[in-house]
Design brief:
2 copies of one chain form a homodimer.
Chain A (H helix, E strand, L loop, with lengths): L4 E5 L13 H9 L2 E4 L2 H11 L9 E4 L8 H9 L3 E5 L12 H9 L3 E4 L5 H9 L6 E6 L6 H16 L2 E5 L5 H11 L5 E7 L7 E6 H6 L9 E7 L1
Helix pairs in contact in A: 3-4
Chain lengths: 235, 235
Amino acid sequence: MNSGTLYLIPVPLAADQINTIPEAVRKQACSLKYYFVENIRTARRFLKAFDTSVDIDSITFSEVNKQNQADVKLLKEWLKAGNEVGVMSEAGCPGIADPGSDLVTAAQAIGSKVVPFVGPSSIFLSLMGSGFNGQSFRFVGYLPVKDPQRTKAIKDLERIAHQQNETQIFIETPYRNNALIEDLVKHLQPHKTKLCIAVDVTAPDQILVTKTLAEWAAAKPDIHKRPAIFLIHPA
Amino acid sequence: MNSGTLYLIPVPLAADQINTIPEAVRKQACSLKYYFVENIRTARRFLKAFDTSVDIDSITFSEVNKQNQADVKLLKEWLKAGNEVGVMSEAGCPGIADPGSDLVTAAQAIGSKVVPFVGPSSIFLSLMGSGFNGQSFRFVGYLPVKDPQRTKAIKDLERIAHQQNETQIFIETPYRNNALIEDLVKHLQPHKTKLCIAVDVTAPDQILVTKTLAEWAAAKPDIHKRPAIFLIHPA
């Protein structure tokens, strides 16, 4: 019998944006004694920011990242014992394009209760703010790094966007953002396709702008090393 | 010069779940004097729930729904005059599968600032909680109502999910939920595909469960008339 619960705890996307996490979520986060986190130091910092009086030392952490695979055996132990367990990533909501989803998959597989909490997702916020058709959309993660696959991927996304009237959403490693913009301006149709560029979502210096490719070509932004989301849609 | 700002204000998905809206968002929502809303009565109720002291009578509302197209001319007037304008839908986040996106499109087109706020999205929360691959996902809205298009759509979604390793997300009119589950059990592969059913997301009676189609076939849930999200992915 699995009486434990897995809580998916969102954290801010940008430093100091604690206000983007609902108060009730911050309270719940600080009440949990078992945590899977991407980075223990970051997790402690967030919990302290949520509530300065949180008893950090009474919490047991297990790291889940590229160096440490999700300790699914430990998760099952904790859940089967009836514990309330938290999952936290480095930024935003766990379970969306991060190592946390393996834990959620395991929890679901053993029939444990899974409770996701409301928090900031740059993918979702940029889709809202893009003005694109929210009826149908697709997130594809990173594009191929090299040609010819890269150019083909860009053109395929545009074709699908137009054929399906479906927003296509993708990301890039931040130090390659400007190069990506060059590629998009080069390969996408200048007047028939719109591009939304969302940068530092929820931060004070957030950029969230939709223009045609022709308009972007005339004024390419410098977003070197800034976390960004890219969305395309028929104009 | 467009000095106005369009704020995208989320509201709860389920009655009384005000705690799912960050405090800072509730404050901002109650400070705005110009609003586009799906339903004026619902909007007033939410604003009063956000802050009982809100001065409702000083707010100008414009309705946007199936009966009333978005008054884009009015939006442009308000924004060009430098006002802070809010958009609110009946539930969840505006700009995702609702009439609000036309307003966002218009605001972007005239170069106004658009600021989406953090709030509950059943699509997003169910994706987090499904345990499916969050690296790549697609939301397609409603499936065709009749056969043969309906069965074809269901099989196409499964094929795409497997070929692309991509979560496919869709919705149904709530009074047809149980019939949809029957169709999914009938047409999807019993052991090679998993289905997540998310019902009344954020409510106390929330269901968010992932199982193989074979497991669902053995114990079909009765979710008649309850708001739900459906997600499929390779097992």
